[in-house]
Amino acid sequence: MSAADNIGTYTEIDIPKDLTLPKLLISQCRKFGSHKVAMREKEFGIWRPVSWSQYLENVKYICLGLVSLGLERGDKAIMIGDNRPEALWTEMAAMCGGGVGVWLFQDCLMDEVQYIVDHSDAKFYIAEGQEEVDKALAIRDNCPKLQKIVWDDPKGLRHYDDPMLISLDEVMNLGRDLERKDPELFQRLVDQGQGDDVCLLFYTSGTTAKPKGALLTHYNMLTMGRNLMRVDPCTPQDDFVSYLPFAWIGEQMMSISCGLQVGFTLNFPEEPETAQANVREIGPHVMFAPPRLYEQYTREVQVKHLDATWLKRSVFNLAMQIGYAVAERKFSKKPVGWHWKLLWALADAGSYSKIRDHLGLSRVRHAYTGGAAMGPDHFRFFHAIGVNLKQIYGQTEIAGISVVHRDDDIKFDTVGTPIPETEVRITESGEIISKSPSVFLGYYKMEEETQKTLKDGWLHSGDTGFIDEDSHLVVFDRTKDIMILSDGSKSSPQFLESRLKFRPYLKDALVIGHEKPHVTAIVCIDYKTVGKWAEDHGINYTSYPELSQLPQVYELVSKPIMEVNRTLPEPAKIRRFANLYKEFDADDDELTRTRKIRRAFVENRYKEIIDALYSGQEELHMETTITYEDGRVAEIRQDIRLMNVRADGGK
Amino acid sequence: MSEPILEVKNVFLSFHGVAALTNVSFHVTRGEIFSIIGPNGAGKTCMMNCVNGLYHPQRGSILFNGSDITNLSPHRRAALGISRTFQKIELFGGMTVLDNIRLGRHMHMRSGIVSSSIYWGKTKREETDHRKFIEEEIIDLLEIEAIRHEVCGMLPYGLQKRIELARALALQPEMVLLDEPLAGLNLEEVEDMARFIIDLNEDPRWKVTCVLVEHDMGVVMDLSDRVMTLNFGVKIAEGTPQEVQENPEVIKAYLGEVEDLYVSRR
Questions:
Q1: Torsion angle of alpha carbons A557, A563, A564, A569, nearest 10°?
Q2: What is the ipTM of this complex?
Q3: Which residue in A34, A44, A56, A641 could disulfide with A29, CB within 3.0 to 4.6 Å?
């Protein structure tokens, strides 16, 4: 009876120094047993549950299997693949055996895979299917420490008989054999673990240089999860959909740090393409995603809105006016009168609840965004439709997050206040530094970098910011990205870019203006929305490059820029822009795998365009190369228009 | 492996004096990928239609698994284990992907109209089994999870081709006739489709014999165990891809001297 009571509520756990994630897993499995669903995966069209006891069972056999294949304490295991239960099992299994998990983004190119496999000294490479196995086989000659490649999806692997390959089923069978010989081994292995042991080696996306491997301990991960849960507690009944890459710290933070402590159910989508539909089916209570995702949501709504009938558009417009007004009152902490509440309820019934449902946000209690800056317009939009969207700020090096908005204390130009046990300060040079039990040990095999980042236990973020009058942290931008404008004032390109990205026709932008006479931008149009607009207006095009260079599209793009300009001080106004002939792409190193822009690289790559933007030219002829995911390289020749933004910009 | 699954003997087919197939004989061995190639109008699709039962040849006989099927109607042949896809997509455009595939499964439904209306016990179990088969064997194999509830007519061409194949597979055929499965697909879709064909030919759960009509020579030569070439309804070559490629008649048929051929036919 008492056990059943425990299942229902979340009680904060104690984190003594010897607690590890595997030990917590075992105690949670004892608590929840076979009655509670630990995770679900949609497979063959049906959500298939895995109970906590099955979860532990699988982790145990995989762990023992890896041990019989030679896993020793401190060994690294690379993991690559979609989000699926097996991914989490192998990660936990590696940790149970004292190993260290290293996650790779699934779309990593060959040389990135090779760099990380080699640099991390990985012994195991745990892949999902053929694609990932192929990558491993291609690089293994250059990674002599690699011993075994494990896979779990047999599709396409029929003829693979390389002795280095082994299926996850076989690994589990080895585990079962070992357990028969030594039934206590698993428990002994787990007991050996200590809180200060490294559990994850996390390669940061690196907007500047080669990825750096941050060493995170069990204690780091556990305290981070606990402190976030102190701010926004979840319950074991909650649902969470895990579909963002595990190689992103945010996903680890929710699935492992918080998920394991609270015991909420993780849901894995059927395929990456079905994720959006699957999220809607589950209706998660909590979600954490980078701004990209929310930007995509708003764009979807905006596009559907453009497409809708007159009546629907009018209802939506009216509802949004109410929503924005109410959200504005909440932001400024003014009381929301009863008549506003009534209007909001009506608008909710008529419009917002449907939008939330379609976006899969109908049950969401806390929606977090983090990892990059998000524009205030997006914030207003989500609060207007009744989604409690909050900003999170943190780094991989602090095991995820350190600062978050509190409910009812949301300021969209800030990232909130520090979570418990976390101190955030600003150095004299304006850099944000933080200290908490979750601060990492250092970078793997990079002593110098570690010393630069970690000074007296303070984590130096490389971000510039300040703390405002409500003791909220304001993150201005990466220190090295800050632009000094013509009048000597400082400005954040990220801020301007996020303002531009709220407009439905613009997908990405690079704003330039550091020590330049005025601010300019390189813009990537959104192929889908602009394509549709062109179709509706009877404009012909065959491809992205062609569409992007049409004069009509330039007119279309210049309007939102003028609108943004209206809200900006004179020196920060965007004076000139060019549409790029392609979207920024992580395969071309223009974005990191978490889709942050690699500013220095991009500015260098499109130097010609930038020079032309400041030269007064009307058109520029360009030749450049693009890289496909399989490594092929193609050459593009392109003429690019350059356009001045009119100063008037209407009212 | 070497027993023939399909034997075609001296087939003649003509439409009002136009000879579409003239004395064509060949056999398809169980478990192989057999391709029929030839210039446009060579009679490839006619041959498919004869095997499938849409056309009935005037002379000659067709044997499937040793029994004569020359005069059987198409649905009887389907029941024996012959299914096909069409060069021009023949899906039900207004139905969902899943419904189209289920339709291909109809042949295997054992329950009658009364028990299906009551839908209880055995009938319900049967339905569950069919759904399981469709989900686990077909949708998973062809990677169409994301579109299973979409209406077919709204899908891009490449995906419709894939659904055609899915529906043909729902029949759980012993032999599948693929009529230009790659026509109109882009490079990536061609690679996917070629892989699906290999999968269903080699995968121990399927082991389907494939008869392929295709113009994409690269794919034909890569996939096929044996190739037959038709030209103006006459078989001009048969053999391994290598042999057929080197056959002077085939080269001639593809590369020219068309006028000579016209003359010789008169």
A1: 130
A2: 0.76
A3: A56
